[in-house]
Every structure is written in structure tokens, then in C-alpha cells.
Amino acid sequence: MATRVWKRFREPGIRGHEAGAGWLFLLPVIVILGLFLVLPIAMAAWVSFSDWNGNGSPLGAHAHWVGLANYRDLLTTPGLDQNNFGEALRNNFYYVLLVVPIQTAVSLFLAVLVNKRLKFVGFFRTAFYFPSVTSSVAITILFLFLFSPSGAINKLLSYLGATGPSWIYDPRGLFHVILGQFGVNQSGGHLANGVFLGVTYWDWLAGPSIAMCVFIIMAVFTTSGTFMLLFLAGLQGIDESVNEAAALDGASEWKKFRHITVPMIRPTIFTVVTLGVIGTWQVFDQIYVGTKGSPLNTTLTPAYLSFDTSFNNNNWGAGAAIAFILFAIIVFLTLLTRLATRSPDRVPRRRRFALTGAIGDEKVSRIGVGS
Amino acid sequence: MISDAVAIRRRRFGNAMTYSFLLALAVIYIFPFIIAVVTSFKTEPDATANPLSLAPNPATTSAFHQLSADQDFFTWVKNSVIVTLSVTFLRVFLDSLAGYALARLRFRGRGAAFATIVAVMAVPGVVLLIPKFLIIRQFGMYDTYYGMIVPLLVDAAGVFIMKNFFESIPVSVEESARIDGANIFRIYWSIVLPMARPALVTLFILSFQGSWNELAQFIISAQSASLNTLTKGVAQLASGQLGSGNRYPLKLAASTLMTIPVALLFFLFQRRIMNASEGAVKE
Amino acid sequence: MAAITFDDVSKTYGDGFPAVSELNLDVNDGEFVVLVGPSGCGKTTALRMIAGLEEISSGEIRIGDRVVNNLPPRDRDVAMVFQNYALYPHMTVAENIGFALRMRKVPKAEARKRIEETARVIGLVDHLNRKPKQLSGGQRQRVAMGRAIVREPQVFLMDEPLSNLDAKLRVQMRGEISRIQRQLAVTTVYVTHDQVEAMTMGDRVAVMRRGVLQQFDAPQRLYEAPANLFVASFIGSPAMNVLEGTLGLPLPADIDASGKRLAVGIRPEALSLAKNGEGPRVRGVVQTVEALGPEQLAHVEIEAKPVLVEDVLEGLVDAEHSDELAEIMTDGHATVIARLDASASVRPDDAVELAVDTRKLHFFDLETGEACR
Asked: Please, are residues C131 and C97 in contact by the beta-carbon 8 Å criterion?
């Protein structure tokens, strides 16, 4: 056996030492991914079950096994940890709920506009994509300036005769503000008393705070260009003749969009939604640069909370636990979108049959004309 | 039956509508950046009082003077350049090596290696902040360039892009080189890599942009001020830890300066970037 | 220069598909051998096994007196021309031609000399600094040839090198490759699915089908003495007429037909319009006539049963005789094609008598498909 292995090594055969070369080529990637991705995840998993406070090594004597205590503090034990975590979840939930649909719609709209064969279309594509290449730091600073209480946006609103809010200093929930317009204010009773994850039901219904709305607008502004490119690629995959056929059938622009374009780029839509969900649950840079969670924790996100709990409060176990819960949320939502994609996946395939059928008919009719 | 004239008029009207939409949107997308540039030439009172005005009154370059006089800012630029260049070149090289092995070389375990890389790709980056910090510290790389650079050296998405590209190259070219007497390393270096230029450029742009704009990785891997990159330094400037007042002209000047390299790269390789989403397909 | 020997060579792919089965073939030193057959017959696999691009499952391949089974391609001293040329797109013509020399560390001055010589042979002296993209299809083909020539290898391997060229250029390049090969006298194995290419270029031609060698012979021998029904219907255009039974035609004395079901094969040129005299003949009605200038092809329906065994059908399909195949498939009648003199006056619907040249008949055993000898 050993000699055979040795012989194979010495007589490499017609493909030379390809296996060796293969592993050699892969080695750096595997080592780095292993050391800085796989290994750290295992280590952080251990920390999330420990009481490590940042002193010494988490693998040393300073860390003790505490079981699920960190997770319990976040999920079931009332207290500050749970309260912060609940608020962070709520904030990010509304962020996702607003950003994902809006950025999908906006980027699709942009893609449809710049997909037309018009002059200067290249310029517009560039303009819409540009925010995507800039750093989150620069964009956040710019938005803090634009949305400062005496900033450009409020100036603009004042020209229109409106008074803008103080934006990033305004902790009021958007839904609360709207409900307030109708005279609905915090009631007593069930909504005020019921508590989930340390946050009252009434506060769960707050919607994104006005401050968070700034980040929502910023997210749409910066990511719509990227997703526009994805949609553009999808749109360019549509056979022009399908649109022409629809036009001949008398379909209006909107009907063509609704009944031809959207179904045919459904896979791209799901890609954009999936990427959107994954990305929006990871808001960190903007919060770090902009508000650090203020005002009144209404821009706190799980990603930032995890960082803050560990690095600033030295509660590493809880910080790691938050990261793992966030991981679970993202994996769960990704699988959910996958599941949702599966059934509509059949639609394009059916469509393809319909398409070949149509081409077949055309052939038949052509032969009919010929004979 | 619609007459031709009506149809043409309709189409003209449609185009006019499209253009007005496009123009309005373009203003929304571009105007903030114009404001950023203009404001960096304003005085602080002017910036606060007239945030919308496009004419600095008085115009001043004091923000830029302040930055160039500030030793810190140069440190940030230097660090950003060091980190970005190391990450970009090494990443393009390592990703292309791995991509080639996965696309073309036959060896046992190739499928498993690829599956692992794809799985790793799915792990969200923010989740890894704490884990990465722990490991960087454990390896004694905390607060060093190594800790800032090494974890960024490999990205699974880049491996994926390169693998796809290499698979689109006809095998016969490599076979021809094998018959001509080239060994695996020679084929990779002299034949395949030059042919992969479009994909390499794409990967270069993505890596440059990614590492130049990176923030979180630098926050968790270093704490000394002397290791601050532009993103980290400017972010600290923004959270007002240094000095008083809103200092918007200064902050926006710094943002503008840090945007210039990626903007340049973007305008230089515009067409390449615009096609990036279609995948790095062969020319 | 070296001879190439296949000794019981088989190639089985991972899924159990036998691409080549027990191939035995001797290519002489300096010989031009063509491997021909329908797609999937194993000819390309056989070629790639010589090159070292495909592993050998069992058996032995020798180049000269070296067993090359486990030798990587670069140590085999072979040069190969690919169907898609496989030029290095980022290198100039000179760099393309010189790449192998660079790999072999040939001194620069000598390399330059050899590149220039080669460029002269292939007629691309003025294009040495162009990139492949700037060349026409024919010129790219020449570069691919040049890359092989400059190596002065023991063996040339060519994998359908002309199939991407238009018809006119293909004829021209055919002649040129033959000329260069004769001039250099390098042992050459050439793969094609085009039987005309095979017949005009090869010193000897190996006909393959489903991984099995059918016949290995000089082109004229393949035509005059096909070993079986497959070779008979694959080689020759228009294809041999193959009919069940003997049609009452006289059997040569040396054929033992006792207890065998026979088929008779008649080349189109073995049929002629019968004059008054005696002799074996077949009667039929003209269906169509194709005038080709110096001659005409008459499709004549006769009272006979066509042979519909797979050997014949496959041979016809892949030799691109699909119209003849269609004729066979139409009804129970057989249609034969006769190659007639241009002066013969035949029209559709004419009843004709065709004289048969009995010296040019082929008889096959219908059970085995083998020729009766």
C-alpha cells in the first residue's frame, strides 16, 4: 500500500503533480478562511457561553462556562440587556421593512428608465450608481449634514412652507407620529402594560424613529445603484421580440411592465430582495459613524449593540450571543426567501414552454403561407 | 387604427416624460455630492446658515489647509494606502490562484473545498466582528498592520468570480500549452492569467473599493491612533471626539478627499463596472 | 521521427462509457494516418491519448520505442493542432510560434531563426507582430500549424484542423498540409469526420465506429475492398448501393455463400445504361436525375429490398448522405444511384435497364456485416 502511494507520487502520470499543485494553489485561501473565519466562529461560540470580560485570553483562566446565561439575559430575563436587545431588534426590523421594498422598487424603476434606448443613458446610469462606490463613512457624514436641524433638507422644506423635524435628534416613532395626527396617543391598558423582550407593545408599534428614517433614506440612496445594475442585467436578458409582440397585442406601457417585465425578471427580484434582507440586518458602519444608537436607543441595531456590548462594556459573552442570534435571524430569513422563490421558479419555466409553443406556431403559419 | 403622426407624437411625449424623470432623479443623486464639495469650501457659519447655497460666501480653503496641516490626516492617508494596496494586490493574486485550482486542476477534495468556500461566503460579515477580534488578539496580531490586512486578504466571492471566468476559457488553450512544454505554474502565470485580464480588473476594482471603504475590520483590529485609516479617522472626526462645533466644512472636506481615489477608479473603469453585474464574462 | 503503436488500447470514462476498445494500430515512421468516423467513434479520444491529454485505461501506446502511457504531454515530443486552434490570444504570432521554444529554453537567436523559417513556410512573415484577433480564420489556422512545425517534433497530431474554415479554403489548406507533411516527413495522425479529407490526405486511413477500429488501409483499398457494411456505406460519395440478396447477379467463384444471407453492394459507377448486348442488369424507373456537368447521377427505383441494418444507416447518417437515407426510408422499394455519363439521356419516369459491372461488386454477410472474401 505504502509503496503504491510512493510510486504514484514518483510517477505522476500524464497530469503531472496536479493534485499537489491544486492544494498548493488553494492553500492560502483555505488557511486564511480557516483561521479568520471558521476558527473565530468556533471561538466566539465558546465566548457566548462564557463570562469572559476581555481580560487575558478567552481560552485561559479568565473565562468560565456559564451555559445559556448570556442568551437567557437577552431573551428571557427582564433587565437592561434584554431591553436594549429588544429595542435594537425593533429598530432594525422597521429598517428592513422599509428599506427592502423601497430600494427594490426604486432600483427596478431606475433600471427600467435607463434600459431605454435613449441618448445620455450612460450618463444617468453613472449618476445613479455613483453613491454605491463611495464609503459609508463619507455618505453618513454627508447625510448628517443634509439632515441636520438647520441643514439642507429642512431649508428645502421651509421653502415649501413646512417645518422639518430635527431628524437625527428626533426619537419619535414614525407610526406614533402618524397616529398622533389622528389623536391616538399612548393609551393605558394592554398595549402599555404588555411587554415583549423588555419593550412594551405600544413601543413595538412605534415604527422607525425619525432619526432612523434618515438612515433608511440613506440606505435607499446608496444601494439602489447596485441593485439597478442587477435589474439592468435581468432586463437585458428579456428578448426584445416579447415586448414587441405585447405592443402589437395593444398592451400599454404599464401592462407590459406588469405582465411581461415583472414576471420575466422575477428571479432577479428575488435575488435583490434576498441580498437586501441580508444586508439590511447588518447595519453597523452608519450607526457607528452617525449616532451610536442615539437618540433614546432608537437607532440602535443588533450589529452595533453586539459591538458596543463587547468592546465598550466588556460584556463579551452577551456581545457574542447577540452576534449569534443575529446570525440565526439572517440565516432563517435567507432560507425563508429561498423557500418563497421556489414555487414561482416554475413560472419562468412554464413561460419558456409557452414561448417555444409560440415559435412553433409561427413556423407552422409560415409553412402554411409558403405552400 | 392610430395614424403614424399620432404614434410618433405619443412616442415623443413618452421620451420627454422619461427624460424629465431621469433628470429629476439625477439631480437627487448628484446634488448631495455637489453640496458636499461646495460646503468644504465654506466657513462654518456660512455652512450652517446657508446649507443649500452653491456659492461659498466667503470661499475659503481653510478646511483643506487644516487637514493638510494636521499630521493625523497624513497618517490616515498613508495607512489607507498601505492597507488598500496590500489587500488589493494580494487578494487578486490569491483569489485567482484558488479560482484556477477549483476551475481546472483535478485533485481529490476539490468539490468539498469549493462547497466550503461557498458556505463561508454565506456568513454575514458583521456577525464576524467579535470572532475576528478574538482570533486577531489570540494570534498577537492586534494593533498591527497584519491584523488589519490578513483577514481581508481572501474573499470567497472573488474566488467564485475567478473560478467562473477560468471555466469560460477554452480548455484547449491550456492543453496546447501543456503539449508545448509548460508546467502548471507556467500555464497559470503565462497563459491563463493574461487571458483573465477582464476578470482580474473587475476583481481589482471590487477589492480596491472594498478595502478603501472598509471600516469595521479596522475598528476591531487596531486601537492606536497611528494605525487609523481614513475611514476610521474620519469616522472619529465625525463623532465629534476631536474639537468642538459642528465643523461640517472640515468633515465634508475630509469625506471629499477620501472619496477621490474610488471616484477616480470608478470613472476610469466605468464600463467595466457597469458590466460587472453580468459576471466576468470573456471579451 | 518515430512510429506510433497502439497495443490493445482501451479508454473507459468514469461513467463506464467505452470511448475506445482494444485498439491496435501501427503508424509507420513518417506516415500520414487519418482517423475517420462518425462523431463519438473514439477518433479524437485516440488522438488525445497519443498527446497525453487523456489517460489510457488499459493497453499500451508507444512513440518510437518509448511507452508513453504515464508520460506528461510535454515529455512526449508531440505537437498538436486543435480544432479551434487554441492560439494564445494575448501573444503575437511570433510569440505564439515561439512559446514552445521558450519553454524548452532554446537560445534566443536560434529561436528567432526558427520562428522566421516557420513563418516563411506558412506564409505569415509579414504578420509576425499581429495578435490572433487581427488575423483571418485561414491565417489563424496557419499560425496553429506554425506552432506545431517550429517544434520539429517526432509526431504531428491534428484534431479536425480544417473544420472551422470555409469550403474553398479547406481544399486549399488540405493540399498545403499534405505538402508540408511530405516535406518534413513527420509522422502525422490526423482526425477528421470528413471522408473526403480522409481519402485525399491519408497515406492510410483508419475507419472507427463506436470505439472500435473497423478497417485500417490505404484509401483506395478502403474504397475497393471495404471490410464490412459500415465502411462500405461510410466511404464513397454518393454512397454504395446496398441491397438484400444477390439480385441474381453472379457470385465470384471464391465466395462460399452456402447457408448465408447475403447483401450485394454496387458502387454507383458500376452501373451504366445497358446497351443492346448481354450481361447482368437491373431494371427500374428513374426517379430523379442530378446533372453534375461531366456526369449525372440517376436515382433509379428497382425491385429489390434495401438493407436497413444499423451498420448501413449509421454509415450514411454520419457521412452526410442524409438524402439517400431519406430515399431508403420512404418505402419498401430500393433506390439505387447510378453514376452515368453526361451524354446518357435519362429523364424522370423513364424505365431503364442498368448494366452491372460484375468486377466491381461487393458481397456481405448480412448476419455479421462482414465482407465475403
From this structure: no
Residue C55 is nearest to which of A11, A14, A16, comparing CB atoms? A14
Cα dihedral A275/A280/A286/A287 (nearest 10) = -160
- Please indicate whether, in this complex, the C-beta atoms of B107 and A124 are within 8 angstroms of each other: no
Q: What is the pLDDT of residues C111-157, one digit of tens each?
A: 999 999 999 999 999 999 999 999 999 999 999 999 999 999 999 99
Residue partners of C113: CB distance under 8 A and separation at least 6: none
Cα B71 from chain centroid? 26
The span from the CA of C102 to the CA of C95, in Å, is: 9
* C79: nearest CB among B177, B179, B197: B179
* Residue C351 bridge partners (DSSP): C285
Whether C63 contacts C4, CB under 8 Å:
yes
Give the SS3 label for residue A70: helix
Nearest CA of chain B to the CA of A40: how many Å?
5
Cβ proximity of A293 and A95 under 8 Å: no
Return d(Cα A76, Cα A69) in angstroms, integer. Answer: 10
Query: CA B243, CA B248: separation in Å to the nearest integer?
Result: 12
pTM of the model: 0.85
Q: Which chains touch B (3 or more CB pairs under 8 A)?
A: A, C
Half-sphere exposure of C348 (CA within 13 A, CB side): 5
Give the separation between CA B212 and CA B87, rounded to whole angstroms.
9
Residues β-bridged to residue C33:
C189, C204
Euclidean distance between CA atoms A302 and A85, whole angstroms = 7
Number of H helices, E strands in chain B: 16, 0
- Partner C contacted by B177 (CB < 8 A): yes
CB-based contact A81:A73 (threshold 8 Å): yes
Please name the member of C53, C55, C72 whose beta carbon is closest to the beta carbon of A16. Answer: C72
Tell me, what's the ipTM?
Answer: 0.90
Q: How many helices (H) and strands (E) does chain C have?
A: 10, 18
Task: Name the CA radius of gyration of chain B, rounded.
Answer: 25
